[in-house]
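for the record, two folds in this file. i put them one after another cuz i was lazy. first one right below, seq on top, structure tokens after. the second one comes after a little note so u can tell where it starts
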Amino acid sequence: MAARHGITGKPAAAKTAKGHASLPHTADVRIEAWAPTAEECYEEAVAAFVDIFADVTGASAGQPRPFHVGPGSPELLLILLLDEVLLAVDVEGLVPRAVHVRRPGKDGLNGVFALVPVDEVQVVGSVAKGVSHEGLLFGTPDGSWRCQATVDV
């Protein structure tokens, strides 16, 4: 899969300030996101996750739905956030067209999804089955926020 934002195949310093990418990984997909803030990094991770199975560019603006995940470590919050996406898709047939995450607090993450029916998006791959706890990263190893996760498809 190609990145929707940023530049792939170049050193991290050459990437744009905010973006995401996905890479094949043995029977899974590895997603990566980067941004100047933790909130934007979570948002980019959701976009990378959705890009695995759907192109949302032609969909309507969507209906807003608040969410809360946590508490937990930044890595656990990433898993819980992506699990919320899976729940919306699997149970309700809704796909996040966009997400807004508020500053993480000690009780977790709060934000709003803009959800659209799956029949409004172009399906481009298999919907993920889950997110692995192995190889999970969320932090600022180089001064900007970065996260990585392996997604079971």
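(here's the note) second protein begins now
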Amino acid sequence: MTAPLIGITTFRSLSRDNYPLLSATEAYIQSIINASGCPLMIPLGLSDENLIDLVSRLDGILFTGGGDVHPRRYASQPHPLVNSVDEDRDRVEIDLLHAALPQQIPIFGICRGLQVINVAMGGSLYEDLLAQGGASIKHDYFPGEARDYLAHTVQVASGSRLRQILGSDKIEVNSLHHQGIRTLAPGLCATAWASDGVIEAIEMPDYPFGLAVQWHPEWLQAHLSMRFLFQEFIQAAIVHSQSR
């Protein structure tokens, strides 16, 4: 059986010699490989036409973590704590989602991935959870803690796909974000929350596989439930590949 082709969104960075790079954290790539998927890094800077052509060849898309979505994308104003904005990345990822949905391509979002999916579908964000009263507990355990540090508990909705995958209604997660969902987009359903009410997971009802989490399961692959997330995503991608 041919491994499903999984597009992985990328970010811009600089090498030690200041050469521009397009990158994806290896933990994402390895998690896809370990779940029997074939990862393909999606470069930034692609035209809309090339994006549409690329999406038609993919069996799934992983929307990765990274810098903040520009506030204008959700009709908000600049905030001093918004950082690492890349407007071309915003464009590419939002266009990717809009191209993928009509084709019912499986979607998996992580951290920024959850946020950009919510924005692309008409929702909004807190530019900073603590500064704007969107949270009462700490969510930004970076830097200073290991990426696999279990920072807090998440409550998972009964009957949700996430609950089915994880096998539990309460899990411990890492937490590497300072933004979060303010207004949930139409067409999305919240399926997990931190103790302060911050949305920690969203799903697309009646969609083959549309799920995003606010934590980083790629850094928690020592935990079986976090491997299940990638395995279920890849299984959905296999089904999509076979249906084409």
